[in-house]
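in:
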């Protein structure tokens, strides 16, 4: 029993530094992961802010169009509807298929 204990003491003495090195390595890896996550999050936040700014600019343009020329927009929409109905009446295949000549 004493021989085994004499063998375990040096083994334990050698294992403690390895455990300390392993623990320090794990801490460094965790810190690098946190840094990478923070960097990725900051990049995504900047992309979202840019996208939101573009959307806000588009909404401002639309608000300006609606408030400055509200009556003109309604007139233009009605004009588009009128031309669309004319285009639709002259296009397509006729629905009276039964009245066609038969060979």
């Amino acid at each position: 029993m004493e021989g085994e204990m004499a063998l375990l003491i040096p083994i334990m003495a050698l294992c403690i530094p390895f455990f300390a090195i392993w623990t320090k390595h794990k801490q460094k890896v965790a810190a690098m992961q946190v840094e990478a996550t923070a960097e990725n999050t900051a990049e995504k936040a900047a992309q979202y802010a840019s996208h939101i700014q573009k959307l806000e600019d588009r909404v401002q343009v639309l608000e300006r169009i609606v408030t400055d020329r509200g009556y003109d927009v309604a007139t233009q929409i009605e004009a588009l509807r009128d031309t669309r109905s004319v285009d639709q009446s002259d296009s397509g295949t006729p629905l009276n298929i039964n009245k066609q000549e038969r060979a």
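note: Residues 49-85 form one domain.
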